[in-house]
Amino acid sequence: MGLIDSHAHLTFPELSGQIEDVLDRCVEVGVDRIITIGLDLGDAKRAIGVARKYPQRVSVAVGFHPHNAAKVKPGDQAAMGRLLDDPLVVAFGEMGLDYYHDFADRASQHSVFTAQLRAGATRDLPLIIHCREAYDDGERLLIEHGFRDRRVVFHCFTGSADEARRIADNGWRISFTGIVTYRKSTDLQEIARTYPADALMIETDSPYLSPDPLRGKRPNEPAYVVHTARFLAALRGVEFEELVEQTERNTRTFFGLPA
User: Domains of the chain: which residue ranges?
Assistant: First the structure.
């Protein structure tokens, strides 16, 4: 049994030039698999290329990040749909809405997210959702497109207890990053402390968000998910090995990963 980093960006410049070393450091701490995320067509193709080189260690999710929504051109959605047919792709996303940064106008974000939801509704792939200060609209669109009680994860969750409850009520789940280890993340820690064991998943979102005791160290990398796992085990009052086994089982089941 080993840890799985359920959300990383191995194609980003901070990590892409040292993939072999990154994977070696994962072996040293017991991280068995990484799901690397492609955020647009070019990034998705690069992510698939990484997984093709390391199929025993890396799986892929592909989609259009809301930050990139205004750059999506006619035909791009169909091209992304073809990438979803690659057997190395285990999820659709990350996709969603971001009203905090607003790097793309909201009309474009809604249009691109809606198009992906329509495409996702016809496929048996889990969705990875990026949702920042946009929960009401994100929930509404997911429900309108038939995703209640389907495989949906709100990655890098930093929302409220009420949002976590609504996510659970819809049959979805949340994933925790190193943010949960930060001293001031008391509200998030309370959500994580009682979060259902059979739905718990962890991620780095590397190269960002290094967990304590490495906060501020760049780049974050998949091996550092061990720090988040140790923190959550202590927070929840369980043995580290038990949390590793549970999160691995949850993540493999959710994404349909190979044993």
Answer: 3-255
